[in-house]
Amino acid sequence: MLHCQVVGNAVATAKHASLDGFKMLLCQQLDAEGGPSGTPFIAIDLFGAGMHQKVFVSTDGISARDIVHDYHSPIRMFIQGIID
Fold it and tell me: How many CB atoms lie within 10 A of CB 20?
């Protein structure tokens, strides 16, 4: 699980069929001090997270593919919760 901040939206005109209907957000991992760490990545959003909100992101690809009901989906990360 990663501590991240939402930094943008991902929009795709062509994407894997398993991702239809899922909101995709660009997330930036945060370090212990709250600063950016690494390269931003895309995660599917199940909770309606907004821009600049802090979130927990799961990197469990099996659970992500279970959420989209397709075990051949390329998805690996999903927002697991919003941090208040």
Answer: 8
| Nearest one of 70, 20, 81 to 48, comparing CA atoms | 81
What type of residue is 27?
C
With CA atoms as reference, report the closest residue to 71 among 23, 10, 16. 16
Task: Count CB neighbours of 23 within 10 A.
Answer: 15
Partners of 29 in the β-ladder: 4
Among residues 83, 69, 75, the alpha carbon closest in space to that of 25 is found at 75
Alpha-helix runs per DSSP H in the chain: 61-67
Q: In this model, does residue 84 exceed pLDDT 90?
A: no
- Provide the token pair at 71: 């075990």
Instruction: For 8-60, write each residue's pLDDT tens digit.
Output: 999 888 999 999 999 999 999 999 999 999 999 999 999 999 999 999 999 99
Identity at 69, one-letter amino acid code: H
